[in-house]
Amino acid sequence: MDKSTLPPQHQNQRPGREEKMQPRPDYYSSAYRPAGKLTGKVAIVTGADSGIGRAVAVYFAREGADVVMLYLEEHEDAELTRREVELSGREALMLAGDVADAKHCKEVIKQTLAKFGQVDVLVNNAGEQHPQQNLEDISDDQLERTFSSNILAMFRLTRAVLPHMRSGASIINTTSITAYKGNPVLIDYSATKGAVTSFTRSLSLNLAERGIRVNGVAPGPVWTPLIPSTFDEDTVSTFGANTPLGRPGQPSDLGPAYVYLACDDSSYMTGQVLHLNGGSVING
Predict the structure, then answer these.
(1) Average of per-residue pLDDT across 139-152
(2) Hey, which residues are catalytic here?
(3) Which of 171, 208, 231, 260 is deepest in the core (most CB within 10 A)?
């Protein structure tokens, strides 16, 4: 039985480039009906150049938020996101750099406050993965890079943002299905995502008295530049086929979940994780 879900493809450059993907990911659904749920809000979104981060930025803008777009160095992809935000009638502030760098995090907040004067939503979404067949193949350099990008960056950026957040603010962390099911070739990545989940739960308890909510989203297989840049052609060609729905998710499938967690619709939810994974039952 043919389990192909995508054309075979691979990118040698990491992080990947969305403009090289076939087909391009869908980052917004025309069936979505905005309702002004984030009017007057300012959101910081990491990894906003493409994939889930782009979808979040666009959905937020359609709901009325101005968006601070953080990304590493994928300028062409980021420009497309910026155009989409501005076509939605909102303002975008593009800031390139490494959010694992504490100095960059402080600069992000400085520029955000200078332009918008407030921060209402933080989406910690940026991350990286490097498949290895055996634990012995994971070098110290890879281990440190993965933890630095995927969890230490969240600590540093959140630490920089928090003094400027008021009651009613929302923090949303992107964890992963791998935090709950594991993955035999993404051992270090899965470990960081487990840390993200625990960070989300503990921080939610810490900030509850301040009226700041902290939740997470745990995607399953989603078609983003991370996939062709980290897996071989054969793996990409059947990506997402093992889900109950039999396909990979699109970034557009996830955007509304982030809107829900960012707006007042989820005012009684904190310390929780939404599982958008194509139908896998996760008990955790």
Answers:
(1) 97
(2) 189
(3) 171
**pLDDT > 90: what percent of the chain?**
89
Residue 25 buriedness (CB in 10 A; 0-12 / 13-18 / 19+)? buried
**Mean local confidence (pLDDT), 154-164:** 98
Can you tell me the distance from the alpha carbon of 35 to that of 62, in angstroms, rounded to the nearest whole number?
A: 8
Mean pLDDT of 94-99: 97
Residue 96 · residue 75 · CB < 8 Å: yes
Asked whether 215 and 170 are in contact (CB, 8 A), the reply is yes
Specify the CATH number of the domain 38-276.
Answer: 3.40.50.720
Beta bridge partners of 95: 70
Beta bridge partners of 94: 69
HSE-CB of 192 using CA atoms within 13 angstroms: 25
- 283: pLDDT strictly greater than 80: no
Give the whole-angstrom CA distance, residue 270 versus residue 94.
29
Q: Where are the domains of the chain?
A: 38-276
Ordered alpha helix ranges (H), the chain: 51-62, 75-87, 102-116, 140-147, 153-161, 178-181, 187-207, 226-230, 233-237, 251-262
pLDDT digits (tens, 9 = 90+) for 124-133: 999 999 999 9
The Cα 174–Cα 154 span in angstroms is 10
Q: CA dist 7 to 51, 131, 229, 239, 257, Å?
A: 18, 20, 14, 10, 28
The verdict on pTM exceeding 0.70 is yes
The pLDDT value recorded for residue 1 is: 52
